[in-house]
Design brief:
With about 70 residues, this protein is an all-alpha fold. The protein has helices at about 1-15, 25-40, 50-65. It is globular. This is HTH-type transcriptional repressor KstR2 C-terminal domain-containing protein.
Length: about 70
């Protein structure tokens, strides 16, 4: 997953959409953060936090890559 995300970030940098100094480390950090957050949701009885998690993950990813995506507010 880190390799795929690194490729995605690198492509975004080449396209001028992202501003990241270290794509591989950024990808690893994002994967770690997302994994831990999903663990929190999956190991609970309900999935009532799923929408909240999705929104926060989108915001985190947009901000981490310097994107002005609509979820980066």
């Amino acid at each position: 997953m880190v390799a795929s995300l690194t490729d995605l970030i690198t492509g975004g940098i080449a396209a001028g959409a992202y501003h990241v100094d270290d794509p591989e480390l950024t990808a690893a950090l994002l994967c770690s953060a997302l994994h831990r957050a999903f663990d929190r949701v999956w190991h609970r009885d309900g999935m009532d936090d799923a929408a909240r998690l999705t929104s926060a993950a989108r915001q985190l990813f947009h901000r981490a890559v310097g994107s002005a995506g609509r979820d980066a507010r």
